[in-house]
Design brief:
The protein is of the alpha/beta class. The chain contains 20 helices and 17 strands. A seven-stranded mixed sheet has the order 6-5-4-7-8-10-9, sandwiched between helices. It is globular.
Length: 612
């Protein structure tokens, strides 16, 4: 009996210790969460976590460390978290792979110096990019299309250089964007009306557009209400902050240039491509740049060219250029267009429109004495850091486009690349299952963060986009999603994403993204850190996320528990309020969710000391 009593006492003691330890951990974590954070971001963080608490049936509150610390293998909560310091004020608008000082060390020929040139590992910053003093949340769309707070991008040069062209005007503490451009000083709406008389913009046939040399992206801004989404790009050059202005306005844009490297987009991605006084030498080098546009243009797609040299006979005096130069420039463009089997369908004023023939491959083969060289590359979508070639990409071999539906039907129709078995391992059934899965995930996200559907987040990024299921499930006229296809992904499905009427870009997350700081309102990543495990440092990826995320912006990470525990430790030193929670199917699923809100802080805050 004495032995049995002693055993019972030991059992009760063990249970008591376990319960007390559990309660201590719970109240410690609760107190730490309530004390975390400072500044203007706290109200959003509290709202997000309060919402999660109100939906305990979907995402129960976690005592996460107690349940999974053993599984993680090496995460010790007693370890000190490294606090990441703010960077020096000179880095407020730092773009690592388009740094002006580094750019000037590269050749200027063919715009090589304006292409991506990223710092080596030893030169990467390990600090938090500060927001400028006075930074505020951008206006909600559609007001943001027309107004940008001056403090967010304090650069007035374009208001002087482009004053008569109605690009941008400075009014008090805001910039106003009247919608003008070099080729459309009367406004983008009237210009788009002119294009729509030739190009089927209104019926969903044209959904994705590429704007080369976009300026402040007014063309893309005004296409939005016509249900057309434009991917705009321009270099970081003497026209300081033009892409930054575009993103502050809530318009998709990246820093980029047509130089020597292929564009980071898949073949047959765009329904329309556009150049409005973009100063790109289209006829040079045997039309190599037009060949690159042809690669990303769908059969039946449109190319719009406004400005020199179109209609040079009438305009050469106004352009102050020799008519002989303009005549030769247009001759080369017409010659390249003919070689590509583009048919000119309109020329009015200073604007010409070509249409790429749907049977371009057979057209080229039928041309007598054709100088066309067909590209021999096996995969026309393998473009990351690949040099352009003076050759024409065949349209066949990447799915046929005849079955492409008009938008919005296109969003959930089976994409041609999948219907024709081009994407290995992705059947029609798997595609449909993926859509169901992401509808379920996004439904759970909306219960965690009720701001998701309000328009509070305009610029959204999916860092590991897969088949585009997240963006499709989230689709709304209130926001857009930049679908990023990691270059190391097992399956290259960015072409599928474009066939759904969405936009995206190739990128390697071991490097910085081609954008300015503070340009995204919400960042989502599913499986990203598992993908990059042992490829590059998690801290570098998280610092890049912090660079491109706005103050008070939100983050949703979905990954395996062991990976997220490592991520969580780094995030603890990053001025993010965060919470780790179970999968929507319950605590037994090894995949977990980390939600976070970046705190509000700016240059000069008392709590910051800068470092390089």
């Amino acid at each position: 009996m004495a032995g049995k009593s002693s055993g019972d006492n030991r059992t009760r003691t063990s249970v008591s210790i376990f319960i007390i330890a559990g309660l201590c951990c719970f109240f410690y974590l609760l107190g730490a969460w309530q004390r975390s954070g400072f500044g203007k971001g706290d109200s959003i963080a509290l709202a997000v976590t309060k919402t999660a608490g109100e939906n305990c049936d979907i995402l129960p509150n976690l005592n996460f460390e107690t349940r999974h610390a053993g599984e993680a293998g090496g995460t010790d909560e007693s370890e000190e978290v490294e606090e990441l310091k703010p960077c020096d004020p000179q880095y407020t608008d730092y773009t690592p792979c388009q740094d002006q000082k580094r750019a000037m060390t590269f050749p200027r020929e063919n715009m090589n110096y304006r292409e991506r040139h990223c710092p080596p590992q030893e030169e990467k910053l390990h600090c938090l990019i500060p927001a400028p003093k006075g930074y505020v949340t951008p206006f909600p769309w559609p007001k943001s299309r027309d107004y940008v707070p001056y403090a967010n991008a304090p650069y007035k040069s374009l208001t002087v250089e482009k004053a008569i062209q109605n690009w941008v005007q400075y009014e008090g503490n805001v910039f106003r964007f009247p919608g003008g451009g070099t080729q459309f000083p009367q406004g983008a709406d009237k210009y788009i009306d002119q294009l729509a008389s030739v190009v089927p913009i209104e019926n969903g046939t044209v959904r994705t557009a590429l704007d080369t040399g976009c300026g402040v992206a007014s063309w893309g801004a005004y296409l939005w209400k016509r249900n057309v989404i434009a991917m705009s790009f321009a270099p970081r050059d003497s026209h300081e902050a033009q892409v930054q202005f575009a993103l502050e306005r809530g318009v998709p844009a990246v820093i980029g240039v047509l130089g020597t490297i292929k564009m980071p987009y898949p073949s047959k991605a765009f329904d329309m491509a556009h150049c409005s006084r973009c100063l790109i030498p289209w006829g040079a080098a045997d039309g190599i740049l037009m060949m690159e546009v042809d690669r990303v243009l769908r059969p039946g797609g449109y190319w719009v060219l406004s400005g020199p040299p179109i209609n040079w006979k009438t305009n050469y005096k106004a352009w102050e250029r020799p008519k002989e130069d303009l005549e030769e420039e247009q001759r080369k463009i017409e010659e390249a267009a003919n070689l590509l089997c583009w048919e000119k369908i309109s020329e009015k004023g200073e604007t010409a429109i070509w249409q790429k023939r749907k049977d371009a491959d057979s057209c080229r083969s039928a041309q007598e004495n054709s100088a066309a060289t067909v590209c021999k590359a096996a995969d026309p979508d393998n473009v990351w850091y690949k040099k352009m070639d003076t050759c024409i990409t065949p349209d066949k071999g990447n799915g046929e486009d005849e079955s492409l539906k008009p938008f919005p039907e296109r969003l959930y129709a089976v994409p041609p690349r999948i219907a024709n078995g081009v994407v290995s391992g992705v059947s029609v059934e798997k595609y449909q299952e993926d859509n169901k899965k992401w509808k379920k995930h996004v439904s759970a996200y909306k219960k965690i963060n009720k701001l998701l559907d309000t328009g509070r987040y305009r610029n959204i990024m999916d860092m590991n986009a897969g088949l585009g299921g997240f963006a499709a499930a989230l689709h709304s006229p209130k926001f857009w999603v930049m679908n990023v296809m990691p270059t190391i992904a097992e399956k290259n499905t960015l072409g599928v994403i474009y066939e759904r009427g969405l936009i995206g870009i190739y990128h390697d997350w071991c490097e910085a993204f081609s954008t300015y700081p503070r340009t995204y309102d919400l960042i989502h990543a599913s499986g990203l850190f598992s993908l990059y495990k042992d490829k590059c440092e998690f801290e570098d990826i998280l610092l890049e996320m912090d660079r491109i995320l706005r103050p008070e912006g939100a983050v949703i990470l979905r990954d395996n528990v062991d990976v997220l525990i490592k991520v969580k430790k780094i995030v603890g030193g990053m001025r993010w309020n965060f919470k780790l929670m179970d999968h929507e199917d319950g605590p037994l699923v090894p995949e977990k969710i980390l939600v976070a809100v970046k705190q509000y802080w700016t240059l000069g805050d008392n709590n910051s000391t800068s470092t390089q």
